[in-house]
Amino acid sequence: MNPSLDLWRAAVAFLAAFLAGAINSVAGGGTLVSFPALIWLGLNSVTANATSTVAIWPGTVGSVWGYRRELREAEPRFRVLIVPSLAGGLAGALLLRWTPAPTFDRLVPFLILFATLLFMAQETVQRLLRTADAGSRRSVKWLVGAILFQLAVGIYGGYFGAGIGILMLAALSILGLKDIHEMNSLKVVFGGSINGIASAYFISANMVRWQYVVIMAVGAIVGGYGGAGMARRLGRTAVRRIVVAIGFAMAVSLFVKR
């Protein structure tokens, strides 16, 4: 099917991208808005997935700008996680092109549910693993574990992407971060790296529908910037509750889809 982009399709695509950009800025999971919307508009699942990734990625620019204050204050050591983000994102994009999705799709709701529960239990797990102090975050063991985990998140993100925000927030909480805004600022950088390299591959492989990419990119940028500002105004407690709610909602929706 090759649907044309008339006025109502453009409006639906823009709204879906705006919501996805805002959700990604706050907690992640915007793919579960933009991806189904494109399928509903007539694109096949692979094209919809690739198009959604490319279209929503510019929203990262708005989110990074919105979190510029938190990024300046974040510990520079965390920037090393950009490398496994890029490597994993490219590997995941290749998997989407070369392998069937059903087996991996069956694992997705379990991964998201686990990450959400892990995020809820942040302080308890930190005490059990003794990772809440700054010294542990400087150890070689921490660095290797963080890189391997982010590589796995990158592969998943390049392949489908729904829930990478929850996974990264959970990982950052276990690694000792407590400020939800600092965690969100790092999350948008890592997520932008994952989706950016995947987008580059999807474009080179001619897997996207550009008529949707353009209108959705604008919506994602506006939604991403507005979402970052809204998160700061809501406060840490409210944003944590939103993260948990989105995580459970995503898990339930994917279980139902199965």
Give a quick set of tags describing it.
79% helix; mainly alpha; 13 helices
What is the fold's blueprint, element by element?
Elements: H1 7-26, H2 31-40, H3 45-56, H4 59-66, H5 68-73, H6 82-98, H7 102-120, H8 122-129, H9 140-159, H10 164-174, H11 180-204, H12 210-234, H13 236-257
Helix pairs in contact: 1-2, 1-12, 2-3, 3-11, 3-12, 4-11, 4-12, 6-9, 6-11, 7-10, 7-13, 9-10, 9-11, 10-11
Which class of secondary structure composition applies to the elements? mainly alpha
Helix content: over 70%
- Oligomeric state, counting identical vs distinct chains: single chain
Largest sheet: none
Task: Tally the helices.
Answer: 13
Q: Specify the overall morphology.
A: globular
From the alpha carbons, calculate the radius of gyration and give it in angstroms: 17 Å
Average predicted local confidence, pLDDT: 81
| Total of domains | 1
Query: How large a portion of the residues is in β-strands, by DSSP E?
Result: under 5%
Please trace the helix and strand order, writing H or E for each element: HHHHHHHHHHHHH
What is the number of E strands? 0
Distance between the termini: 24 Å
Poorly predicted ranges:
none
